[in-house]
Amino acid sequence: MPIKIPDHLPAREILEKENIFIMSEDRAFHQDIRPLRIIILNLMPIKETTETQLLRQLGNTPLQVDVTLLRMKSHESKNTSQEHLANFYHTFDEIKHENFDGMIVTGAPIEHLEFEEVGYWGEFTQIMDWKRVHVTSTLHICWAAQSGLYYEFGIQKHPLSTKLFGVFPHSIRTNSKLVNGFDEEFYAPHSRHTEIRRAEIEQVPALQIIAESEEAGVYIVATKDGRGIYVTGHSEYDLFTLRDEYERDLQKGMQIELPKYYFPNNDPGKKPLHNWRSHAFLLFSNWLNYYVYQETPFNW
User: Fold this and answer.
1) 10 Å Cβ neighbour count for 48?
2) Is 142 a catalytic residue?
3) Which one-letter DSSP state was computed for residue 5?
4) Pairing of strands 100-105, 36-41
5) What CATH number should be reported for the domain holding residue 212?
6) Residue 284: its pLDDT value, please?
7) What's the rounded Cα separation, in Å, for the pair 10 and 6?
8) Total number of domains constituting the chain
9) Rounded distance, CA 127 to CA 192, Å?
10) With b meaning 16 or more CB within 10 Å and e meaning fewer, what string describes 241-256?
11) d(CA 35, CA 23)
């Protein structure tokens, strides 16, 4: 898929080397086509890394996508330069009168806080209310999945005794277009300290569990109308993201176990297998095709 992003976004060079079809703003302007408008609310600290991971996933279908990056105005980023934010990101006030075909909300390393204790919770809930009218379908990832389910359906998050960390096998639980083409068993990375529970989800008639893991728990939840997709793991992660998290925590002197089912023979000196890549591409392309492209109005 040709994906339209700002000409000087750092992710462009990386993605072009990977043969992801990147389209310049000028070329896109001269094409007689209606691209899908996707807005990404990036809550991660190092925003450039997450941009690259998500744009890689969005660049793998025949659909043309026009990406807008969104940040929290009520939060000052300490790990991304103000120049980068000023050049490539919008605030909610700048886009709240617009409509988008799809939205992605990323995770955030704030699980230790209660939702209402998060500094930008007020702005976050404004955006959650806004998307019900202005976005066709929203894909929530990790913390965004938990916070979205809490705000919209009252489902609580629960602390885990130890960090869920690794690449875990999963199975499909509901026949859904979202998992078309998935193998009966597939893998996905997780990195979190909290969970949502099957029993509480099953009490909400509007929700269905699409996939889960015996060890990692609920993985994909969706509203029955497809407008809300909630993914508790990180299918978008690069090959070495879990390794980098592990080494970072070791350097901080934290007690951290090896990520499960990740390093061959549990040897951190060996290169991990990228055994979740194909399912990640399928997840994003199925969402774009069946829940965004097939459902969004041609003229907002």
Assistant:
1) 18
2) yes
3) -
4) parallel
5) 3.40.50.880
6) 97
7) 9
8) 1
9) 24
10) bbbebbeeeeeeeeeb
11) 12
Write the single-letter amino acid at 88: F
Please report whether residue 64 resides in a domain. Answer: yes
**Whether residue 158 lies in the annotated active site:** no
- Mapping DSSP to helix (H, G, I), strand (E, B) and coil, where does residue 169 land? strand
Catalytic, 51? Answer: no
Q: Which of 142, 170, 190, 212 is catalytic?
A: 142
Would residue 256 count as lying in a domain? Answer: no
With contact defined as beta carbons under 8 Å apart, do 19 and 3 qualify? no
224-272: pLDDT as tens digits: 999 999 999 999 999 999 999 999 999 998 888 999 999 999 999 999 9
Provide the residue range defining the domain that includes 228.
Answer: 3-159+170-237+278-293
CB neighbour class for 300 (10 Å; exposed up to 12, middle 13-18, buried from 19): exposed
In a domain, 273, yes or no: no
DSSP state, 139?
E
The tally of CA atoms less than 13 A away on the side-chain side of residue 166 is 21
Which residue is associated with the tokens 């690794």? Answer: 166
* Active-site annotation holder among 190, 236, 245, 279: 236
Low-confidence ranges of the chain (pLDDT < 70): 1-5, 7, 18-33, 300
Neighbours of 214 (CB within 10 A): 9
Which residue in 140, 170, 190, 234 is the catalytic one?
Answer: 234
| Packing angle of the helix pair 143-153, 121-134 (nearest 10 deg) | 80
DSSP readout, 42-107? Answer: --SSSHHHHHHHHHHHHTSSSS-EEEEEE--TTS--SSS-HHHHHHHEE-HHHHTTS-EEEEEE--
